[in-house]
Amino acid sequence: MEEQKIDLAAYMTGSISRIMAKAYKNVLSNPREAKFAFRMQQLFAKSEKRRRRVKEQDGIDVPPFLISSISTTCNLHCKGCYARSNGIANDEESNRKPPLTPQQWQQIFTEAAGMGINFSLLAGGEPMMRKDILEAVAEVKDMIFPIFTNGTLIGPAYIDFLRKRLNLVPIISIEGTAIGTDERRGQGVFKRAMQSMQLLRQEELFFGTSITVTTENYHLVTSCDFLDQLRSYGCKIVFFIEYVPTEAGTEHLAFNDDHVAEMEQLLEQRRDEYQDIIFLSFPGDEKALGGCLASGRGFFHIGPDGSAEPCPFSPFSDSNVVELGVRDALKSPLFSKIRMARALGWEHTGGCTLFEHREEIEEMMN
Questions:
Q1: 212, exposed or middle or buried, with CB in 10 Å at 0-12, 13-18, 19+?
Q2: Fewest CB atoms within 10 A around its CB: which of 247, 302, 307, 311?
């Protein structure tokens, strides 16, 4: 049977529009947040035209979002942390990648916004350990920066900081229950994360949570009881991130095709039931979108030193956005090879496609 072809650009543009429309509806009670969300809705319509214009002029497909690791340090030592396993985060300063300056990050995102990229997910390490970078990138008013944080550093001073910078959106990472979170992240981390959510709710700031989903917890974290708890804390967006087995012996925790399909069905049901919460999954059902969205097709990853990488789980690079700029980094020969290889038969079988094919990508680099 012939595969159904999906216009990826149109699909992602439509998805962003729906997300922002829902976000706007969810913050109508807060005039400050509602005004910001309305302005971003208008901006995104212009951004789609910017991406299309770059495509027409230079033949470059501009992704609608980026993932950027801005910090090389973290105050926690979570089990199975991909950032530590691939060298992004390191306790030894001599072993860390040389980080970019706040001004370099600001320049990168200014260029990206001019091309029609309006989102960059900020990761690390712990991005809230780099308040200087957050302060600089928040000046790029045409972008929204979801900050993937463990939430332990959010106190009254950080709340005031975020209140003045609405394009910085905290996404607090938990593992579901207190037991699961503390087992992976450390004793007391769940309680501290919930306290941060309470502070954000009291200030009526838009925030969300990120949950690593595995074969063992996905029924729990998509249950109505659990989602009702998140709703009670004021959470407005939930990212479900499929576990990638970076540690030997944990492969059984990664999704297969059946898990991916069931997860998507569960989320469709929850989207109908929870109109006040935005649900996103990553990587999600990539088959419906023609395969992996990394390598510039839907996004790419910028490492702490500016390396343009296919994905956070695939830390290979042949270009640097500081040296080349975002536009030329999208022309990366490695990105082109990966997109071609996927077209020749790479499929999403659970977890991360590029992580599963890392040996092939190493050969491309060589």
A1: buried
A2: 247
What is d(CA 285, CA 11) in angstroms, rounded to the nearest whole number?
13
Rounded CA separation 277/295 (Å): 29
Query: 294, 352 in Cβ contact below 8 A?
Result: no
Beta bridge partners of 301: 67, 309
130 — alpha (psi -120 to 50), left (phi > 0) or beta? beta
**15-38 pLDDT per residue, tens:** 666 776 777 677 777 888 888 888
Long-range pairs, 305-308, Cβ under 8 A, ≥24:
305/97, 305/98, 305/99, 305/100, 306/100, 306/104, 306/108, 307/97, 308/332, 308/335
CA–CA gap between residue 341 and residue 155 (Å, rounded): 46
The strand order across the sheet containing 208-213 reads 278-282, 237-242, 208-213, 168-174, 145-149, 119-123, 65-69, 301-302, 308-309
Nearest to 48 by CA among 146, 120, 151, 118: 118
- Phi first, then psi, for residue 349 (nearest 5°) are -115, 20
Q: CA-to-CA distance for 196 and 23, rounded, in angstroms?
A: 20
Residue carrying structure tokens 């290979």: 316
**Which pTM value belongs to this model?**
0.89
Backbone angles phi, psi at 331, to 5 degrees: -90, 10
